[in-house]
Amino acid sequence: MNFNRAYDAVLTKWPQKPLGVDLAGRFGSTHVNVCGPEDGEPLILLSGGGATSTVWFDNVGALSKSRRVFAVDTLGDAGLSIPSGDRMKSVDDLIEWMDSIVDCTGGDTVDVIGHSYGAMIALAFAVYRPNRVGKLVLLDPNSSFSGMKAGYLLRALPLLLKPSRARRRRLLEWETGELSIDSDWLSLAELGTSDLPRPNLVVPQRPSEQDTSALDVELLVVLARDGRVHDAATVAKVVRERVPAARVEVLEDASHHSIPMVPADELNRVLVDFLES
Predict the structure, then answer these.
(1) If DSSP codes are grouped into helix, strand and coil, which group holds residue 23?
(2) 3-state class of 273 per DSSP?
(3) pLDDT-based confidence at 238, cuts 50/70/90?
(4) Number of domains in the chain
């Protein structure tokens, strides 16, 4: 199976077939999977590195009941977006790209959910464009409030140095442990590693204490208790110290790479409660 067929196979798990939209911009074509009522308030979903926008298959049903959901394939990462224009080289470029996504939703201000690398983008956007973000949800945001564990970095190093399907699977299976990860999505993640060019991503620096303390958005941080990327308790402590008004939730039986798929029901409850409150 090639990457596009694997991508479509995961999309069939969505409760309704999304509308695929390709946004032309300075940096290339960004693919967005859109669903939900056309008059619903816009909600942008930013997935983790290599996960693609298809990964939200267990969440879009709950989120799109009242929201117009825009699930984005990050430009320069695995997915159907094509970096055919100017190369994104800086955080300013990344913010310009995010501005174009918000513009396409038709709203001046949007709610944003980001996971992992997507959470890093979402947080940077909230810091740079606080007037464009309403509610902000960060799912197990690595390198955003504290450093990553040395053990995880050592495990990830072989994949970074010489990507392969086997190394991608080994890292995901080690990090998620006994949690059951969808086999079709896992195949897609492997094919993204083996069949596509290496990711070409702008990685935002961790915001300063001053920047995070000054955040002027409603913030929810959801952490995976059993995640191996960072220490959930440490991240929760930093968030509560810097952003006292933030809501922090720690999910049981969850790992960094299992979110947003596992535990989807509990995560959806938390997300809907926060977004609709």
Answers:
(1) strand
(2) helix
(3) very high
(4) 1
Q: Is 151 exposed, middle or buried (0-12, 13-18, 19+ CB in 10 A)?
A: exposed
Residue 162: give its domain's CATH number. 3.40.50.1820
**Residue 233 pLDDT > 80, yes or no?**
yes
Query: How many residues does the structure list for the chain?
Result: 277
SS3 content of the chain, % helix, strand, coil (to 5): 40, 20, 40
Preceding peptide of 141 cis, ω within 30°: no
The whole-number pLDDT of residue 16 equals 92
pLDDT digits (tens, 9 = 90+) for 140-167: 999 999 999 999 999 999 999 999 999 9
Contact call for residues 50 and 189 (beta carbons, < 8 A) = yes
- Tokens for 119, please give them: 């959470």
Q: Which domain holds residue 212?
A: 3-276
23-46 residues labelled b (16+ CB within 10 A) or e (exposed): bebebbbbbbbbbbeeeebbbbbb
Q: Which two tokens stand for residue 46?
A: 């930013």
Tens-place pLDDT, residues 110-124? 999 999 999 999 999
> For 131, which DSSP code?
G
Q: What is the mean pLDDT of residues 54-66?
A: 97
User: Which residue's entry shows tokens 């959801």?
Assistant: 222
Distance CA 46, CA 214 (A): 23
**Percentage above 90 pLDDT, the chain:** 97
DSSP 244-272: TT-EEEEETT--TTTTTTTTHHHHHHHHH
Name the residue among 100, 104, 97, 95 with its Cα closest to residue 126.
95
How, if at all, do strands 28-35 and 19-25 pair? antiparallel
Average pLDDT of the residues of the chain: 96
